[in-house]
Amino acid sequence: MLVAGAERRGRHGSRTRRTGPGRAHWPVPSFDVATKPRRSVLTPGILLLVIALAVVGYFVLRQGKPLLTGSGCQAGRGVAAITLDPEQAEIASTIAGVAHQRSMPSHAVMVAYAAALQESKLHNLGYGDRDSVGVFQQRPSEGWGPAWRLKDPVYASTRFFQALATVPGYRHKPVYRAAQAVQHSADGLAYVQYQPLATDLAADFTGNNAHAVWCWSASPGPARAKLTAARRGLAHAFGPVSSRQAATPGDAPAMLVRVPRPALGWAVAAWLVTHATSYGIHEVRYDGYRWRRSSGNSGWTAGKGPERPDLVLAS
Fold first, then answer.
1. Dihedral sign, CA of 252, 253, 256, 262?
2. 239 — alpha (psi -120 to 50), left (phi > 0) or beta?
3. C-alpha span between 46 and 92 (Å, rounded)
4. How far apart are CA 2 and CA 21, in angstroms?
5. How is 231-277 classified by DSSP, letter by letter?
6. Contact 311, 257 (CB under 8 A)
7. Which of 96, 108, 154, 225 is the most exposed place for a label (fewest CB within 10 A)?
8. Does the pTM exceed 0.85?
9. What is the pLDDT of residues 80-114, one digit of tens each?
């Protein structure tokens, strides 16, 4: 599915007022979004047309082959491939990181993705309906926090998960109902369309699907990896992680991240790959696989030899 190429403008047509943390609201993939909620009566013919377009759009996007030119990212493989633009991929990996930091289950990540897709198409918007800002289009005037902080995807995701955790039985609610319980949108059913996509993204970005996320870039990025900044960024999203910089004679400096289990290792690897251009990372290795920015459109390839399953390496 192609989620990239969204024209960023405020909110979608079904956008509605939120009433503070614990209210529901939703995002969409690459379609235009109105900035003001409107009341209208749909005739049966128009309603059927809207539903048909949504279904066709979903399958075209879901099964469309990724355009491996310019810059972009992919989650999943084959017919399950989802193409994202670089910002969407960075935000998706950040949401997964914050979920790890707050010990939130995979279901919570699905809910967050469905909400972010409906609200901002996984973009960090500096504007929206009224005073809404950020990935989840949270409103400072309704208690979500200062606008400048809500523009930080880590903070916005943290506030979203904090609100979701207060929803009784959210782990057992359908994704769209849990999202609505947080965002309190006018039409909670709008989140339904993103449940399948959110489910797939959650499996890829939380590391349950190994070597499932990779990126390619037309931008050269920094010539030298900014590993200290990358370590800070990783800790900001994932919380305390055991990482250090190391270098052996003849090799470029590297960043080593210790991970206690494979799923976390692949989630960390996805974060490093999706942020590679920002931090000048040229290569990421984990569990016998390697991703290189110079050949990013090739995805993850098997390395020359086995690598430790408890260490992710970036250089």
1. negative
2. left
3. 33
4. 30
5. HHHHHHHH-S-EEEEE--TTS--EEEEE-SSHHHHHHHHHHHHHTHH
6. yes
7. 154
8. no
9. 899 999 999 999 999 999 999 999 999 999 999 99
Helices in 84-137 by DSSP H: which ranges? 86-101, 106-120
Give the whole-angstrom CA distance, residue 73 versus residue 82: 8
Look up residue 260 and give its amino acid: P
CA dihedral (26, 29, 35, 38) positive or negative: negative
Query: pLDDT (tens digit, 9 = 90+) per residue, 131-172?
Result: 899 999 999 999 999 999 999 999 999 999 999 999 999 999
Structure tokens at 30: 């690459």
Which residues does 307 contact at the CB level (< 8 Å), separation at least 6? 285, 286, 287, 288, 289, 313
Give CA separation, 186 vs 65, 78, 103, 138, in Å: 34, 36, 30, 15
CA triple 279-149-21, angle to 5 deg: 125
Q: What angle do CA 281, 257, 165 make, to 5 degrees?
A: 105
| 116's tokens | 């972010």
* Cα dihedral: 207, 208, 209, 212 (round 10): -20
Structure token digits, residue 59: 């399958």
The DSSP element (H or E) to which 301 belongs, if any, is: strand 301-302
